[in-house]
Specification:
This protein is of the alpha/beta class. It is built from 15 helices and 8 strands. Helix 7 packs antiparallel against helix 8.
Length: 254
Amino acid sequence: MAKQNSTVNLFVPCCMDLFVPQTPYTIINILKQLDIYCHYEPEATCCGREFYMRGEMDIAKELAYNYINYFHAKQIGVDRFEAHPIIIPSADCAAYIKKSLPELCSTMALPAEIKYFVQHTYELCDYLVNVARITKLNNSFPHRVFYFESCAARNYYQLGDEVQTLLSNTEGLTLFTDPEMKLCCSAHGSFAMHNGELSEYLLKMIVDRIMKNDIEYITSTDTHCLQFIDAYLQTRQDLSVEVIPIPEILNAHK
């Protein structure tokens, strides 16, 4: 279990801030119930991952530098900086910080800070299970839920079974997964913009495979994937399934 009065820094990805702005409050509430104080810097809204993926390195570097400075020792105190992990409730953005930021910022005069961010940045479920040592939140969500493992969670961040552990320990929840379904929803980058028909075909394959189990909700570690899947679901009048961010399930009670 997390030590009482533990503290973390919360970084809210821009996609979450735009499309599901209530979810950060849900995350703060989850952490509060675990006696974990959450420090949130409201001006830190973009890590620059999208620009990095498009090859716009100057903008990506500027945003990376801003990101580092929001949590820099000079701003929030040396003791706090050294002690507190950074939680990012998105596998793709968390992986970007851990895997791509060091190379991007290799010419910046902050090598020690870069190392810190890599070692102390966690996706939410990873932090709860592997750092706070929490595998059950006493939450309740009596529905049939499919966990869609995003490309970022599987290949980029390389999450283990942390998500499955927390969902499996949710009262009333019937969890469905498909380890063999290594399909991309095509939400990353500009692929869908330039390959509309193929993108829709991939989404159809994913949803049709998921719905073989009469699913009520689809969840994922990545907001942009859920929003992309949801946009496709709106075109399917024959389906009543909904998407839901993982924190909303972890905070659900009777």
